[in-house]
Amino acid sequence: MGEFKVHRVRFFNYVPSGIRCVAYNNQSNRLAVSRTDGTVEVYNLSANYFQEKFFPGHESRATEALCWAEGQRLFSAGLNGEIMEYDLQALNIKYAVDVFGGPIWSMAVSPSGSQLLVGCEDGSVKLFQITPDKIQFERNFDRQKRSAIHKMIVDRQHMGVSKRKCIVWGVAFLSDGTVISVDSAGKVQFWDSATGTLVKSHLIANADVQSIAVAEQEDSFVVGTAEGTVFHFQLVPVTSNSSEKQWVRTKPFQHHTHDVRTVAHSPTALISGGTDTHLVIRPLMEKVEVKNYDAALRKITFPHRRLISCSKKRQLLLFQFAHHLELWRLGSTVATGKNGDTLPLSKNADHLLHLKTKGPENIICSCISPCGSWIAYSTVSRFFLYRLNYEHDNISLKRVSKMPPFLRCALQILFSEDSTKLFVASNQGALHIVQLSGGSFKHLHAFQPQSGTVEAMCLLAVSSDGNWLAASGTSAGVHVYNVKQLKLHCTVPAYNFPVTAMAIAPNTNNLVIAHSDQQVFEYSIPDKQYTDWSRTVQKQGFHHLWLQRDTPITHISFHPKRPMHILLHDAYMFCIIDKSLPLPNDKTLLYNPFPPTNESDVVRRRTAHAFKISKIYKPLLFMDLLDERTLVAVERPLDDIIAQLPPPIKKKKFGT
Amino acid sequence: MAALEEEFTLSSVVLSAGPEGLLGVEQSDKTDQFLVTDSGRTVILYKVSDQKPLGSWSVKQGQIITCPAVCNFQTREYIVVHDNKVLRIWNNEDVNLDKVFKATLSAEVYRILSVQGTEPLVLFKEGAVRGLEALLADPQQKIETVISDEEVIKWTKFFIVFRHPVLIFITEKHGNYFAYVQMFNSRILTKYTLLLGQDENSVIESFTASVDRKFISLMSLSSDGCIYETLIPIRPTDPEKNQTLVRSLLLKAVVSGNTRNGVALTALDQDHIAVLGSPQAASKECLSVWNIKFQTLQTSKELPQGTSGQLWYYGENLFMLHGKSLTVIPYKCEVSSLAGALGKLKHGQDPGTHVMPRFVNWETPQGCGLGFQNSEQSRRILRRRKIEVSLQPEVPPSKQLLSTIMEDSEKHIEVEVRKFLALKQTPDFHTVIGDTVTGLLERCKAEPSFYPRNCLVQLIQTHVLSYSLCPDLMEIALIKKDVQLLQLCLQQFPDIPESVTCACLKIFLSIGDDSLQETDVSMESVFDYSNSVHDEKMEEQTEILQNGFSPEEDKCSNCDQELNKKPQDETKESTSCPVVPKRAALLNAILHSAYSETFLLPHLKDIPAQHITLFLKYLYFLYLKCSENATMTLPGINPPTLNQIMDWICLLLDANFTVVVMMPEAKRLLINLYKLVKSQISVYSELNKIEVSFRELQKLNQEKNNRGLYSIEVLELF
């Protein structure tokens, strides 16, 4: 099948930001997640938990609260004292409204979804009416002596239940008048709101209980503690057949090592996130009707987009961080070896460049050209293009100034194979083509979005001959443009699940598309139809283990000499699909880690199938083919991330 | 809080109640079934939970029932009197009252009285009382006259006080009231005159009585609307003298004085009474529950269709004639707290279910159920459904099983339980098993001879029971010294309290070898130690084990030598099992059980010293057996682990140290233990040294595997 030299890279020092808030939207089954750096991500729980949208963070904009209102509108509020609404189509911030109350600590939406309530640093609680295109200040509630740091779940004020030196981190107001509070003393307490009396108290942790979320039916809720434990409480009858019910702590879950800063309760799952950067989705077994793979625990740690690009020609890797880029040159070896050997290095990898952004905004996307002489990246407000010059071991960097005003915010940047063209997907839905020559550039064309749609394109793919450009948004199908004739060539039929990766094969110009449900399609651009192989695959179906993989395919590439091969990877495996071999059915072994050493060729031929999978490298953030016989794999071991997190609350373990 | 629940009608069929209402409602031998006698010719047996009649019997046209039917709890027969003198006795199988047993008496019967646990009494209109058996032996016997002319019996009640039947009846003559108390053990009849106090011309409308240790508390509702209490001593001071009793005001103006219909009261429990009547002259009739301790009205229910002024109370149900139909209002008095009363009103449960299942079934998702609306309508629908279901001839097997438990023989119950267990597991399987065990245990308690051992074993083996579900089970087994059942419980129950574990241990240690032989305990955890002849080897081994430490340091070395001088057969003794295999199996069950040291220690102190020594000897033996092999395990299926053995040795020594130290026969044992522990410690210290070396090797190995931040490797895909 093939022997490769693999550059196994572990020096991508990426640490995801801790999760601050999660908000679940029942209507669309989507989950909004905000991180401590201000990034907001939207996961589609129906589409195999794919992170389909993201809004880049901002240094001054620490999000403290996140909620869905008016159906599917997403709002956030934070320490900069502003309420923001996100445009989920154009993927930008629609507007920001200063509430004039200092930093906002909490925000809640009224049960009807038409009003927002924020609690500010100065102790005021402010009510906003949500209008069709903005929010409007309605009234200010009486100031309290302390700053309002409890969350108001409904638009009613509740008497203070805090004790001295005890911070109430969250409250929930149930429709029967019960108030549930969680506090820094490790207690979950039930109060009668009519009388203000404590009804029941559960001491569940030695540390703070930081978050609470109630199910829509109000028959169960979930709390998260600073010890990393998530507790599930359920309203169960005292005895069977009895109508009298009481809240019982039913299940503890320990999926986090650090503070659980936020929890959410979907009808079928408990969702939690915190300082340890994992988003954990724990389905409730009793609510899951079919006990299939959807009932499995999900732990999402890495973004579902690419943070790494690579220059094949110069063997360079460009790493994208929140506020800087790193350029590394891979090392080399002259030795050869057999499978599994680690070869002695004749030259180690070099850190060539550390490029810091200006301003507080996070980097949205970045790319290095295949020739290695251009680097482009974009933040929300600016687009940067640099020209790199290599003189022996020295490297010089020159910024291309005077960017045209339309090139302000790019969601995706791509260079053509010969590095003469730059493709930019802007957040206005337009695709710009820029001609690069020497040290200058020229704007060639802009494909405007179809009239009426403003959907942003987040994925781009260009053919190696530079003739075809494919662009995909978050929901609509994939558009293929003819770069020579500067017009829309065709649109690939829409599919239910969002696209996670795509690439155009050299020579054949077949577009290979991977979707979040792990389906892979091959579409012939010249013929404007799916290829025969793709039809065969769809007819036979993928192996069930393939469909059960829980991280999306994030990158697809091709072997220049073997047109039948498709290389793709997700976070836990790397796979070469050999289209010439038969597809595996559910009875065959999908993963075949053992080399056929002593077996005869007959056996090998009988068991051989199209999917050649390697699970050696994980978690795998990037994998690409540098040349015919060389691969580069970028891993980010979880232990290295944990080592960079603040220490968790120390728990006394027996015998230590 | 005392509460009345939603009422329901027993039957849609209108009873032929006369103007004075029903003749009576009496309990039958089953808790849920009641005999209703109307004022005409009919007796109906109702099942309250099903709200349907189970049987109906009528006397011939022209005859008239004069005394409400009662149940003879001893023979499970029903007794009724018609035409004042004719006694009829029948049971459920009889269809026609004409064809059943008949006895014609020589005097007119006022009432037949029957309570659980004793034979029925017949009270004649003239005040004489006879036991039923004595009366049936000679129906035509002469009945003496006790009360004077024109004196009329108004009310009567029959109690059991300290297992002795006591009968009280009230008579009236020209506005004066007399109470007669008949003690049956001493055959003493005491007559009291009731003084009405200042309000001399009031008429007493209704009586009720409750009994405590010394007094019968007679409560009477007078026509002035007040309730008075009269305390009648059970043991009369001077039975010969005519004594007077004064009544005291208990509750004032409970009902309106001049009502058209009758009023009635009945005592519900120590502190609560139910009163039927109109609160004001013009208002509709009400059933109200009063707390006599606090003199507060707890709850009341309006009965707009009017009542007959009669009220009966049996087993949490109040019976009355509401309009034309017999109405049942369940009464509940749950323990309430002030916090509960202030904070939240607890809702009562569905009135249709009287026997509350005590077990929550966690398996079925009904708990988080959406279908649990409390609306009136759904309740009604539920009830209707329930009626429909119960009308069908098929009773669910679980219900059938429960009813079997209450009455059938052990053999039959066993067959039924086996049948039930053989069925497919239903979603309410847990609940049914729990109810079944509780039912069996209740019966065990009531009938000392009843002990369905095989059933209990089968039920325990379903793996759904736990100690907290049926704490009585182990209690009964302890009383019966049923070591087999105890062993099973120890193996199956995850939550046995330490005190019970310790009680089991005591029994296991004290039970005689001969009685053990008869039992059939599970020997799974015991390996047949008898055939292992390791005696000499053992000695050798200790020699080897001592390698690495110098015996000179041993302060006990001289005792060692002393010991070594002892004859060989004693050493042999220490390596043969000190207990019989069956006892070993029982003790292993104890070793396997979960415990918390703090709670167990105080109980361990209660075990006699010789038993402690025996147990220690056994543990020491196990420990020796353990240390015979490298893995430190015992042979056999599920044997006690080394840690369990060690923990128990420590526990026993901790709890009984002073006792064991003083015992001469334990001295050798202690020295042996000390020697062994010492040698083991030295072995472990050596192992520790080795472990450190191995750890270093492991580290070296790991470093080799741990690639740096960057490497180039070869990958071949197949």
Automatic annotation (TrEMBL), chain A:
Q: Which SMART domains does the entry link to?
A: WD40
BP-aspect Gene Ontology terms = maturation of SSU-rRNA from tricistronic rRNA transcript (SSU-rRNA, 5.8S rRNA, LSU-rRNA)
**Pfam families under this entry?**
WD40
On the tree of life, the source organism's domain of life is Eukaryota
GO CC, alphabetical: 90S preribosome
Q: Which residue positions does the secretion signal occupy?
A: none
Q: Which Gene3D superfamilies match?
A: YVTN repeat-like/Quinoprotein amine dehydrogenase
* Name of the protein: UTP4 small subunit processome component
Q: What is the lineage of its organism?
A: Eukaryota, Metazoa, Chordata, Craniata, Vertebrata
Protein's gene = UTP4
From TrEMBL, chain B:
Keywords annotated in UniProt: Activator, Nucleus, rRNA processing, Transcription, Transcription regulation
Query: Principal place where this protein is found?
Result: nucleus
Q: Which InterPro entries match?
A: NOL11 (IPR042859), Nol11_C (IPR048897), NOL11_N (IPR012584), WD40_repeat_dom_sf (IPR036322)
Transcription regulation: present as a keyword of the record?
A: yes
Positions of the region Disordered?
549-575
Regions of compositional bias (Basic and acidic residues) in chain numbering: 552-573
- The coiled-coil segments of this chain are none
Biological process terms from the Gene Ontology for this record are:
maturation of SSU-rRNA; positive regulation of transcription of nucleolar large rRNA by RNA polymerase I
A single GO CC term for this protein reads: t-UTP complex
Q: Subcellular location, in the record's words?
A: Nucleus, Nucleolus
Mind telling me which PANTHER family this protein's record contains?
A: NUCLEOLAR PROTEIN 11
Q: What is this protein identified as?
A: Nucleolar protein 11
Q: What is the originating organism of this protein?
A: Macaca mulatta
Q: Quick one: which gene encodes this?
A: NOL11
